[in-house]
Amino acid sequence: MNTDMESMISSYIEDELNKEDKTIFENYMNDNPKFSQKVHVMRNMINQFNNQEILTPSDNFIDNLHYEISNLSQNDKITTNNRVLTYWFSTNWKATLGFSFMIAFIGMFFLNRILISTNEINISNSDNLEENTTLLSDSDSLKTNNTEFPIHQVKGTSTDK
Amino acid sequence: MNDKTDEELIKDFQNGNINAYNHLVYRYKDRLFHYIYQFVHDIDKAEDLLQDTFLKLYTHKDSYREIAKFSTWIYTIAGNFAKTELRKFKRRKTYSISDLSFEDNEFIIKDTNKTPSDIFLDQGLRDSLNECLSLLPLNFRTIIILRDIQELSYDEISTIVELPLGTVKSRINRARLKLYECLQNEGLK
């Protein structure tokens, strides 16, 4: 079957062909009864669709819809801020990503500061401890020095006198 | 209010007139319900999706811009809901016509003496036609529903399906030819 003619079937049925094409198409139909039958069936098919019984929603559809809308309005009042935030986060994902990085950076900065200050306290504490230890060592060494010179030697010195 | 166009009504609704919304709902509920039903073939599901469509109209009224007709906008919303539901359903359950049970196959026309044009006289054929429609690929089915059942213009369909006018026209023709072939096969069974 001629594919060019087949591609023109809908245009012919909907009367969109120009006069020249229409004549060619109708001549082809006259020469090809099988093709003519096909066009006839397709026309009927479209008519069947056009004349289909229109289904309608149930009688309480409008009531249900209004009920849902009133629920929606109540929820809106309660969660307006949440909705705005959710909408903002869902629609501006790039900004959200940037915002998250910024929060993470600030968090890390403060965490770092806290760790540094904690460390500084530890260091100063350990410095003091070290200082005390040094002092203790000095006194210890003095003591040691003292012990290096036993009392009896001092006494001995006096005895030398 | 009745003599206002859809575009005037949506503008009124955007300005806070809830009556305009109600008018739009009354104006579109039946055809949108029928439109959605053609995809999902379930009355309850179609009603739920219709409700979702009008709720979206309520909550996203400001998304409408007067660059397109209101009808194309609302059909796009309803169609998206219907197609999403259809995809969910297909993921849950996939079967071909040959997998259907004996009871499901009862719609098939068995009288081989009838010519395709004769069988159009039967109520059974209407069912066959709908069955063939449901077997079409989604892009062909959508376009047939919009053109032959909802009787929208080619321009409106072109906007809804986001395809050039020429593509829409050729796709409608191909979809109708596929339907014809399907009916032929149904008649031969």
In the predicted model, the low-confidence regions of chain B spanning at least 5 consecutive residues are 95-112
What gyration radius of chain B follows from the Cα positions, in whole Å?
Answer: 19 Å
Overall residue-averaged pLDDT value of chain A: 77
The backbone outline of chain B, from C-alpha atoms, is globular
Distance between the termini of chain A: 146 Å
Helix content of chain B: over 70%
H and E string of chain A: HHHHHHHH
Q: What is the terminal-to-terminal distance of chain B?
A: 53 Å
How would you sum up this structure, described in words?
By secondary structure, chain A is mainly alpha-helical. Chain A has helices spanning 3-7, 9-13, 19-31, 33-50, 61-78, 80-91, 93-148, 151-160. Chain A is built from eight helices and no strands. The longest helix of chain A is centred in the C-terminal third of the chain and has 56 residues, at 93-148. Chain B is mostly helical and 189 residues long. Chain B is built from nine helices and no strands. Chain B has helices at 6-14, 18-40, 43-59, 70-92, 116-119, 123-135, 138-149, 154-161, 165-188. Mean pLDDT of chain B is 83; it is low at 95-112. The chains are: A mainly alpha (161), B mainly alpha (189). At the A-B interface, helix 2, helix 4 and helix 5 of A face helix 2, helix 3, helix 6, helix 7 and helix 9 of B.
Summarize the structure.
In chain A, 85% of the residues lie in helices and 0% in strands. With 161 residues, chain A is mostly helical. Chain B is globular and about 55 Å long.
